[in-house]
Write a structure and sequence with these properties.
single chain, 339 residues, alpha+beta, Elongation Factor Tu (Ef-tu), domain 3, OB fold (Dihydrolipoamide Acetyltransferase, E2P), 4 domains, 9-stranded antiparallel sheet, 4-stranded antiparallel sheet, 13 strands
Length: 339
C-alpha cells in the first residue's frame, strides 16, 4: 500500500515537472517567434488659426466646434466704436475737401461777379471824371488863371481815382477767371487725400468681419461672444480634413528604401484598414533629439528624419491624431557595418 502511494506521488511530481517544462517551452517559442514590427506615426491635417486685424469686442460668433465652414464665410464680427467714429471724421473731411474743390473749380458766384463789375465801372467813371477835371484845370493853369497848387491837387486826384479803378477792375477780372491752377490742383489733392482716409477706414471696418481663409471644420473655438480680443488674436481654428497626411520619424538606417513619390501601405487602427500613402516630404536635416546608438556598447549614433506620407485617395473618417502604423519590413535596410 505504501509502495502504491509512493508511486502515485512520484507520478504527480513528474507530471508537474512536465507541465512546467512544456509551459517554459511554449513561452520561449512565443517570445522568440518573429512578429511583424511597425513604426507608429500620427495623422495630421492643415490647421489655420483665424484672427482679425482689428481689436475689439466679439459681437457675434456664428460657428461652434464641429461645424463645417466654407471659404470666405463670416466666422465672427468684431464691434469697434472707435473705427465707426473715425469713419464719421473721414466722411466729414471728404465733404469739406469736395466743397473746397468745387469752389476752386466754379469760382465766385454770379452775384459776386455782378457786384464787382458794378464797382469796377463806378471806379472807372470816377477816374474818367477826375481826368476831365484835370484837363480843365491844366488849361486854366496854362492861361495863368489858377495857381500851381490847384493844378497839382487835380493831378493827384486823377492818379488816385485811376489806381482805384485799376484795382476794382483787377478784382473783377480775378472773379471772372476763378482760382489759379495751383489752387485747383491743391484742392483736388485734398479730395484725393480725404478719399484715401475714407477708404482706409472702410478697409478697417471690413476687417471687423472675420472670414474663413479656408474651407474645413471648426476644430477649436478660442473666444466667446462678449470677450475682448486684440489684433491678431485668433477666435477659432479651422482644420481642412481633406488636406491630411501621416507623419513618421524614421531612423536613418531605414531611409535606404524611402524616397519621395514612393508608395507604401499604412495601417490605420482607428479605421481598421490598410491604405496606400505616397511619400511627399523627407526632412532635409535629422532630428538631434532622437539620436540612438547603433550598438549597446557604443558605435556611431543614428539620427531620425521626419517623413510625411499623403493618401493616394480620399479616406473617409480620417481625422488628425489617429495612429498610423508603418510596417518596418517594407523598408528594412541592410545591416549597417561599423566603420
Amino acid at each position: 500500500m505504501n509502495v502504491l502511494k509512493l508511486i502515485g506521488k512520484v507520478l504527480v511530481v513528474f507530471a508537474l515537472i512536465a507541465l512546467v517544462v512544456l509551459g517554459i517551452l511554449a513561452l520561449q517559442k512565443f517570445a522568440t517567434e518573429p512578429r511583424e514590427a511597425y513604426l507608429q506615426g500620427q495623422i495630421e491635417a492643415r490647421r489655420v488659426l483665424v484672427a482679425g486685424k482689428v481689436p475689439g469686442r466679439v459681437e457675434n460668433l456664428f460657428f461652434r466646434e464641429g461645424d463645417m465652414v466654407e471659404k470666405g464665410a463670416i466666422v465672427a464680427v468684431i464691434s469697434s466704436p472707435e473705427i465707426e467714429a473715425k469713419k464719421m471724421q473721414a466722411q466729414g473731411a471728404l465733404g469739406a475737401a469736395r466743397a473746397q474743390a468745387s469752389k476752386a473749380k466754379n469760382g465766385a458766384r454770379s452775384e459776386d461777379i455782378t457786384a464787382l463789375k458794378a464797382m469796377a465801372d463806378r471806379a472807372q467813371d470816377a477816374a474818367n471824371l477826375a481826368k476831365n477835371t484835370y484837363d480843365r484845370v491844366q488849361k486854366l493853369f496854362n492861361e495863368g488863371v489858377i495857381p500851381l497848387q490847384k493844378r497839382d491837387e487835380a493831378e493827384t486826384q486823377m492818379k488816385a481815382t485811376q489806381s482805384a479803378a485799376d484795382a476794382a477792375r483787377a478784382q473783377y477780372n480775378q472773379a471772372v477767371a476763378g482760382a489759379r491752377s495751383e489752387d485747383k490742383a491743391a484742392a483736388n489733392a485734398l479730395v484725393m487725400q480725404a478719399r484715401g482716409a475714407t477708404a482706409e477706414v472702410d478697409a478697417y471696418l471690413e476687417e471687423t468681419k472675420i472670414r474663413a481663409p479656408i474651407a474645413g471644420e471648426v476644430s477649436v473655438k478660442l473666444a466667446e461672444e462678449g470677450e475682448v480680443v486684440g489684433s491678431g488674436m485668433p477666435v477659432v481654428a479651422i482644420t481642412d480634413l481633406s488636406d491630411s497626411w501621416a507623419t513618421f520619424h524614421l531612423r536613418e538606417d531605414l531611409l535606404k528604401n524611402v524616397s519621395k513619390g514612393k508608395t507604401f501601405e499604412i495601417f490605420i487602427p482607428a479605421l481598421g484598414k490598410t491604405v496606400e500613402m505616397e511619400v511627399s516630404y523627407i526632412a532635409s536635416v535629422g532630428d538631434y533629439a532622437t539620436w540612438r546608438s547603433s550598438k549597446e556598447s557604443g558605435g556611431f549614433d543614428l539620427k531620425s528624419f521626419e517623413v510625411r506620407m499623403r493618401p493616394k485617395a480620399v479616406i473617409e473618417n480620417l481625422r488628425p491624431g489617429m495612429s498610423a502604423l508603418f510596417p518596418v519590413a517594407s523598408i528594412q535596410a541592410e545591416n549597417i557595418v561599423n566603420p
